[in-house]
Amino acid sequence: MSETSAIRNDWTLDEVWALARLPFNDLLFRAHTIHRQHFDPNAVQVSTLVSVKTGGCPEDCAYCPQSVHYDTGVDAGHMMDSAEVLERARAARAGGATRFCMGAAWRSPKPRQVEQFAGLIREVSALGLETCATLGMLSEPQARQLKDAGLDYYNHNLDTSERHYPQVISTRSYRDRLETLQHVRNAGLKVCCGGIIGLGEELRDRVELLHTLATLPAHPDSVPINQLVQVEGTPLSGTAAVDPLDFVRVIALARILMPASHVRLSAGRTDMSDEMQALCFFAGANSLFFGERLLTTPNPAADRDQLLLDRLGLRPEPLAAGGH
After folding, report:
1. pLDDT tens, position by position, 161-216
2. Are 76 and 55 in contact (CB under 8 A)?
3. Between the N and C ends of the chain, which has fewer C-beta atoms within 10 Å?
4. At what angle do helices 244-257 and 203-214 cross, to 10 degrees?
């Protein structure tokens, strides 16, 4: 394996800055070369995300329509009944998804809620799908309980740099997020962790976020890169739009820094042109969410996504050997 594609956890901030300042073509060439060394460049891992418990979250994340702090028209709901969750999971599998992700708008789940979720995980896993959950902060015993139920991945994003974080969230610290990631790793779960571009951050914050992810004890197995979906009623509504080429640069940097991780195009794709998404795939993105909603925000229709994949000659990645 060439030096440029070696998996490293010792990146310096200066090295990441140097990559961020490369000319666009040089950055994409390097990222695409590394991508080919670790993945089939024409395969895309497909996930589906469902909100199993929506709204009523006590956190004040400035981008989130599910926060009780903002008037966004999203009401607090009850946990979805298991029959409906399974119906959604079967539909996801029929649509080509290999991973079913379940989210709940909690600061951290209570013991009874963890037990309920463990039951859902067992049932979804029995369908032959990989499972992922995002439930807020977890203790290590809670993470182990979910692992024992068959959970494959746990999502807990850092969102932005530690420097910019207080401008976005005040009810949970950056250290809290890093501790949950440690608990998840200690439990033997795979980590899904990335961030959101468009939170009013500077280039410095994007560089520092990626540096933090790339210097964790182990790289996240999945790195979702979200483009902010602006929701009226949240503090970040009206924030300046992200330059599409700047977003592609973030994808390329993530690929170079974390060569063996799946880099996922997540929220915000409804505002991305087909050409922008094509550049993202070339730069190293190799995962996306299928389905018309991501928790409470819109996502491209599955037929539109399939048409784009067909035009690009991309195909769904099969379930990994040893998976469900």
Report:
1. 999 999 999 988 999 999 999 999 999 999 999 999 999 999 999 999 999 999 99
2. yes
3. N
4. 20
Tokens of 20: 């961020």
Residue 216: closest CA among 173, 262, 185: 185
Report how far residue 78's alpha carbon sits from residue 55's, in angstroms, rounded to the nearest whole number.
Answer: 9
- Amino acid identity, position 324: H
In this structure, the chain runs to a length of 324
pLDDT tens profile 120-177: 899 999 998 989 998 989 999 999 999 999 999 999 999 999 999 999 999 889 999 9
Tell me if 134 sits within 8 A of 156, measured CB to CB: yes
Query: What pairing do the DSSP bridges indicate for beta strands 297-298 and 293-294?
Result: antiparallel
Where in the sequence numbering do the catalytic residues fall? 57, 61, 64, 101, 132, 192, 264
The 10 Å Cβ neighbour count of residue 138 is 24
Domains of the chain, first to last: 9-316 (3.20.20.70)
